[in-house]
């Protein structure tokens, strides 16, 4: 399996298995409890498939099968040494190499001239309200993890996301000011 095949969900799964062996449903529950779905798209079915691909690549291995009560059998996995190496390499690449992920918003802004300025202003007001809501959730989340004494290294992404949201809000407000003042002819 090529290094590039380690998807964001695969990275999340391997990172969990660095902490402790677990079964995919336990991984899913932990990702959701930690609100990791704000960073990576998480669904139980796709997580099971991701773990299967990790096993095929030799990055995880089954350590046992458990069955509790009426629940289905659950295979517990652990990360292998090659899995740790793959995780390390992928994280290094992700941190060092910028990737154009083709976000939708820059494309929408590039084509916004096809709409009347009043409509654009109204839509951007809605976007700012949504972004401020997301920012509020992250600020409250930061307060919660700080109050619990969770080490900052485990939620540094929250600070990054706050900064990105604040930057986008500021940019939109400046763009709206230019539209409203006529400084940007429409």
At a glance:
By secondary structure, the chain is mostly helical.
What does this 3D model show about the protein?
Strands 1-2 form a two-stranded antiparallel sheet. It is mainly alpha-helical and 186 residues long. The chain has helices at 8-19, 24-33, 44-56, 81-96, 104-111, 117-147, 156-181, and strands at residues 60-66, 74-79. A hairpin with a 7-residue loop joins strand 1 (60-66) and strand 2 (74-79). The chain is 62% helix and 7% strand.
Brief descriptors of the model:
single chain; 186 residues; mainly alpha; two-stranded antiparallel sheet; 2 strands
How are the SSEs ordered, and which strands pair?
Elements: H1 8-19, H2 24-33, H3 44-56, E1 60-66, E2 74-79, H4 81-96, H5 104-111, H6 117-147, H7 156-181
Antiparallel strand pairs: 1-2
Helix pairs in contact: 1-3, 1-4, 2-3, 6-7
Low-confidence stretches: none
Principal-axis shape: elongated
Secondary structure: number of strands:
2
SSE pattern: HHHEEHHHH
Which strand order do you get reading across the main beta sheet?
Answer: 1-2
Distance between the termini: 50 Å
């Amino acid at each position: 399996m090529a290094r590039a095949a380690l998807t964001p969900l695969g990275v999340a799964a391997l990172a969990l298995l660095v902490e402790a062996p677990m079964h995919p449903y336990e991984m899913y529950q932990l990702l959701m409890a930690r609100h990791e779905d704000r960073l990576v798209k998480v669904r139980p079915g796709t997580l099971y498939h991701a773990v299967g691909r990790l096993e095929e690549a030799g990055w995880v291995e089954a350590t046992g099968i458990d069955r509790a009560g009426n629940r289905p059998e659950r295979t517990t996995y652990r990360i292998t040494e090659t899995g740790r190496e793959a995780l390390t390499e992928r994280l290094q690449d992700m941190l060092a190499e910028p990737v154009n992920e083709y976000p939708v918003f820059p494309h929408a802004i590039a084509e916004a001239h096809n709409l009347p300025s009043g409509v654009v202003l109204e839509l951007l007001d809605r976007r700012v309200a949504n972004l401020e809501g997301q920012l509020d959730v992250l600020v409250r989340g930061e307060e919660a993890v700080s109050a619990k004494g969770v080490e900052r290294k485990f939620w540094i992404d929250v600070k990054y996301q706050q900064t990105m949201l604040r930057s986008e809000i500021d940019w939109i407000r400046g763009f709206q000011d230019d539209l409203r003042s006529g400084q940007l002819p429409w």
